[in-house]
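ZP: hey, is the magnesium ion complex queued? I don't see it on the tracker
AM: it wasn't, my bad. submitting now with these inputs:
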Amino acid sequence: MKHYSIAVIPGDGIGPEVMSEGLKVLKVIEEIHGGVRFNKDSFEWNCDYYLKHGKMMPDNALGILKDYDSILLGAIGAESVPDHISVWELILPIRRAFQQYINLRPIKLLRGIEGPLRNKTNNIDFVVIRENTEGEYTNIGGRLHQNTPYELAVQNNVFTRYGIERVINYAYSLAEKRRKKRLTVATKSNGIYHTMPYWDEIAKEVGQKYPKIKTDYCHIDALSAYFVTKPEYFDVVVGSNLFGDILTDLGAAIVGGLGIAPSGNINPEKNFPSMFEPIHGSAPDIAGKGISNPIALIWSIGLMMEHLNFKNIADLIVKSIEEVLVARTVLTPDLGGNASTVEVGDQIIEEMIKLSVKSF
Ligand code: IPM
Ligand code: MG
């Protein structure tokens, strides 16, 4: 029997709703597999916590989380707390402290999804690797001449050799395992003078170690257009923190929307826990109505299972989601249905049980 400790942070808005479906899935995995147990601890660190305590997490939060095998996060953000506080005091410290330098986001058109590009192609299956610890997301910089007409703000981007090398290496090793053996490097070295040429330069250096992989460099503006006009071309796309962030919302949109798009914040060396979370946010507009789509969170659990070396469970989760999508009878409103969060969760679990009888 293998035991895994999972720190669960349901968060704000629709986070707790989708998380409770995720917890049901973890339970069903234990039943199906028989050889795995999850010891789950839930932490109510969110914007309400901030309003009570003046901080998003207790001071020793990272010390507490450090010993878990994985972290599952719902979504963070509420109108009561400025976004830069909720993000900079919860999500970003976790991604950084635990060296989750890979943000892995599959962009895959699942069976049963009629994407907005349905007339163009049905073959969308790539992964965006987003650098997750530096780049444009820094708190280096400041403001000067505040409250004067010549007030100014400076925000510094940080690109380190170490940071670039490790994310490009990861992207290449992933490309080696995939069908098309192609890596697209997102850049903007025509407009950004220092950092992007440096990013390209190091990517080229690293690329020499992977002669079997076809590499192309694509400026972020053109790349965004290609996501729409020829998405079937891509296999692995690697980008800086901000470029990866923007590309993956667009990626999610072309394969059925944010309601289904998963992500993993991964520390490949497994020196620290990795964190799995849907790409979507806390969606305050629909929170509490019981209609949020739990698929993104449940698929993120699939990524977690893959990271914990249970590839067969990860496949089972994706297949079960696909069965529900193909049947089209139990879908949340974002996918054109009228089912509730709980009904979709239950349906996926039913499929998992059905399919596992065949495959285990
Ligand atoms: C994401 C989100 C976050 C990010 C926000 C909430 C800071 O958009 O995970 O894509 O930009 O990293
Ligand atoms: Mg984002």
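AM: back. The CA atoms of residues 136 and 242 lie 6 Å apart.
ZP: great, adding it to the tracker
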